[in-house]
Amino acid sequence: MPKLSFKRNIVTHHLETNRATYIFTTVLLIMGVIFGAIIVNSMGFTQKNDLYAYLTLFFNEASKGEFASPKEVFVQSFAYYSKMLGFIWFLGLSVIGLPIIYILLFVKGVMVGFTVGILVDQMGVNGFLFAFTSVLPQNVVLIPVFIIVATMATAFTVRLWRQIVKKGREPVITHFVHYSFFILCIGLILLLVASFEAFISPRIMSLIIEMVI
Fold first, then answer.
1. Are 209 and 158 spatial neighbours (Cβ–Cβ below 8 Å)?
2. What are the tens digits of pLDDT across the range 146-199?
3. How far apart are CA 102 and CA 97, in angstroms?
4. How distant is the alpha carbon of residue 41 from its chain centre?
5. For residue 75, is it left (φ>0), alpha (ψ between -120 and 50) or beta?
6. Which whole number is the average pLDDT over 56-85?
7. Longest CA–CA separation in the chain, Å
8. Percent of the residues in the chain that have a pLDDT greater than 90, as a whole number
9. What angle do CA 75, 78, 81 make, to 5 degrees?
10. pLDDT in tens, 35-50
11. What is the DSSP string of 15-43?
């Protein structure tokens, strides 16, 4: 019980200390989602038609079971998430990299909003069902994860800045170890997300496509 109480105190202190950053990053990502949906609504008829043709081609191929191999999907997904995570980690060390972290978070929101928006716009209820079962499950994990990572990177950058301003009065090596260890733990979560996308998501997509087509 004392250990559990200690952990709760750490989490509570972290949330209270970084409350403003969590609010900012969350709002930023939500704005990205909204912006992605707005892009869909502002597209012309020809552009939407081209995208719909691509979606139709994808569904036809998927209905025949022509997905990429799970191993290939896993490698590509985990490589992508690892690069993004490593890039954010590095930007957190660079002191001046915060704007880029926030841009990446915003772009992530835009991608989610655009993907869901185009599916719903072109396929209506079926598109919403497809998005709900194939796009949202992994993003339910990815979105909070990247919000937390961006917040942790911000917190570490602030500590580095204090180190520079105070000329070494605040030791930062312990925070660096904690920050890096936290990033490694997040990497394990992304490993699970990549596994879901490779081995489970295609099966769910196949079932939904059979219902849609």
1. no
2. 999 999 999 999 888 877 776 656 677 888 898 999 999 999 999 999 999 888
3. 9
4. 23
5. alpha
6. 80
7. 65
8. 43
9. 145
10. 999 998 888 878 877 7
11. HHHTHHHHHHHHHHHHHHHHHHHHHHHHS
142-156 CB burial, b ≥16 within 10 A, e <16: bbebbbbbbbbbbbb
Question: For residues 78 and 190, is the Cβ–Cβ distance under 8 A?
Answer: yes
The arithmetic mean of pLDDT across residues 14-23, rounded, is 89
> 210: how many CB neighbours lie within 10 A of its CB?
10
| Whole-number Cα distances in Å, 72 to 10, 52, 63, 187, 198 | 39, 26, 19, 18, 8
Q: ∠ at Cα 205 (135, 39), nearest 5°? A: 35
Q: Name the pTM for this structure.
A: 0.85
Q: Look up residue 182 and give its two tokens.
A: 């936290």
